[in-house]
Design goal:
Blueprint: E1 2-7, H1 18-27, E2 30-35, H2 40-52, E3 56-60, H3 72-81, E4 87-96, H4 104-121, E5 125-130, H5 133-141, E6 149-151, H6 158-166, E7 170-173, H7 185-190, E8 196-198, H8 220-231, H9 235-249, H10 254-257
């Protein structure tokens, strides 16, 4: 069994065949999926999916691309949704200085507010970081690092990885590990086996051999195989470890995690 620890099932790309997408995932042994929210309205849709499909859970949060909308009212809505029983994490939140879709000050404010929610509720924090390694490392050294978190779709360097691992955080890798230009193999090998997660980030970042097409949870198997090869582990061992880790990270015991 595999756990797709990070995908976006509410995306428009799945509107025509969402049921089939989840059926294909199950056929590939992917029977645990967390669909990640980008803002409060998205979280409501994600929760509805989690209520409708066994083996699907949701998050609630504000993505850094959406930080302009992280008003007090929006954050209050997110906080309320965190109490829903199918919500298992805060996020996706963080810093994105590559696209800079929102002013950086607003990104920091939204990120820190959501980290405080994670500490308050005991839920883990799902974190996006792009072109902001130094700033994210500094955040993790402070109060943000008091939450239990994951750096999703990791492609950063040793400095950020060191701080995250020192704080007991998890590291997740996406289909990027199958790309020829992926240059973080050393970081893949450095992640302890009990802190490793695997994800699709679907519908984005489809792995080889499906690169350039829509990604979906069933394709996490390709990413898991690539990770196992890079780390010199068997596929079965890596699949079992990442399943255990994701259950632990998202607070799903064996009964709750069964579809």
């Amino acid at each position: 069994m595999l756990f797709d620890s990070h995908c976006h099932l509410t995306a428009d790309a799945f509107d025509d065949d969402r049921d089939d997408v989840l059926a294909r995932a199950l056929a590939q042994g992917v029977d645990h999926v967390v669909t990640i929210a980008s803002h409060a309205d998205d979280a409501r849709e994600a929760i509805a999916l989690a209520e409708a499909f066994d083996g699907v859970w949701s998050t609630a949060g504000v993505h850094p691309h959406e930080a302009r909308r992280a008003s007090a009212d929006e954050l209050a809505r997110v906080r309320e949704l965190l109490d829903h029983p199918r919500v298992v994490a805060v996020g996706e939140c963080g810093l994105d200085f590559f696209y800079d879709h929102a002013p950086r000050a607003e990104q920091f404010a939204a990120f820190r507010a959501q980290a405080a929610f994670a500490v308050e509720t005991g839920l883990p924090l799902v974190v996006h970081c792009r072109d902001a390694d130094a700033e994210m490392a500094e955040e993790l050294r402070g109060e943000v690092g008091e939450a239990v978190g994951v750096l999703h779709c990791f492609s950063g360097g040793d400095a950020l990885l060191d701080v995250a691992l020192e704080r007991g955080w998890y590291i997740s890798f996406s289909g990027m590990v199958t790309f020829k230009k992926f240059d973080a193999q050393a970081q893949v090998r450095r992640v302890p086996s009990d802190r490793l997660l695997v994800e699709t980030d679907a519908p984005y970042l489809a792995p080889v051999p499906r690169r350039g097409r829509r990604n979906e949870p069933a394709l996490v198997v390709h990413t898991a195989r690539a990770l196992a090869e890079i780390r010199g582990e068997s596929f079965d061992d890596l699949a079992a470890a990442t399943l255990r880790n994701a259950r632990r990270f998202y607070g799903l015991d064996s009964e709750a995690a069964s579809p």
